[in-house]
Amino acid sequence: MSEAWRKLGKVTPTALVEARLQAHHAVQWVTKAARANLAPQSDDSQSSLLWNKVHAALCCEPLTTPRGGALRFGLALDSLRLIALENDALSGEFSLEGAIDASAGAWIDSLALGAGLKPPSPVVLPYALPPHPIAAGGLYAPNAQRDALAAMASWYGAADELLREIRASLVGVGRRLSPLRCWPHHFDIAVLLTLGEGEPESAAAVGIGMSPGDTYYAEPYFYVSPWPRPTNRTLPQLAAPAHWHDKDFLAAIVTASSLIAAPDPCMRARRFFDGAIAAARELLDASPPLWR
């Protein structure tokens, strides 16, 4: 196991809820910066984020400044700091300890405007966030969540590492394979393997990723989700401890708690993905066979 995987389990996965909610709200400043300054894409990928291992941060794509430099904003998950990277070097940071959301916006607006970019604050997000006092002017309190934030950062780091490995094994499979991205709406980090032809909304595809938790699971979980949702099909059996989730969306799921219960959580997660991707393809009945 890598260092990222060895760190898992020091904090009970179900104890990450408050840290996750604060981080979910904070990271919206990063995606707002991207939405304000990057050209819209058909899949909304300009709003997505990338894992930065050096800073344990979720960062936006580079924003080209009028001076010709490249500015990235990010959220360091282990400490809940907004950061600015200029040509990949740390050029600014803002601790959210004791801050309100408006203060975070003022800081990131100031840096964006100083670099000749559009400010993030005017951006209106096209989705709702999970309820939290921060949205009504409450204070960020990362110091009280220090251990939980470090644990959550470890889950993202471990997921990024394994999903990159999974993605590499799928190169040449199917019709399209997306980059590995974090989507700030649901806060998950995922790859999309498109198997069929047609528009993205209807083409057969498999989402492969990790969620840090949501209203369905109060802990991180890895998932494999076939799309469109198959109907009138018997779900293939999954190897324990994985299970099928079918409320509001269909996905093979393995929770963080069940992963860290194994002697080698990374190996258990890899076996989950191998079996679940094969099961998802079976459900979608892709032809010709594409899995290898």
Describe the structure in your own words.
The chain is of the alpha+beta class and 292 residues long. It has 2 domains: 11-146; 148-284, no CATH class. The protein has 7 helices and 13 strands. The protein has helices spanning 3-6, 17-26, 28-37, 101-114, 146-170, 256-260, 265-284, and strands at residues 50-52, 57-59, 63-64, 70-76, 81-86, 89-95, 176-177, 181-183, 188-194, 205-211, 221-227, 243-245, 251-255. The strands form 2 sheets. Strands 7, 8, 9, 10, 11, 12 and 13 form a 7-stranded antiparallel sheet that branches. Strands 1, 2, 3, 4, 5 and 6 form a 6-stranded antiparallel sheet that branches. α2 (17-26) packs across α5 (146-170). The chain starts with a helix and ends in an 8-residue tail after the last helix.
Tell me, briefly, the overall form: globular
Strand content: 15-25%
Which regions contain 5 or more consecutive residues with pLDDT less than 50? 286-292
Overall tally of structural domains: 2
Record field, number of beta strands: 13
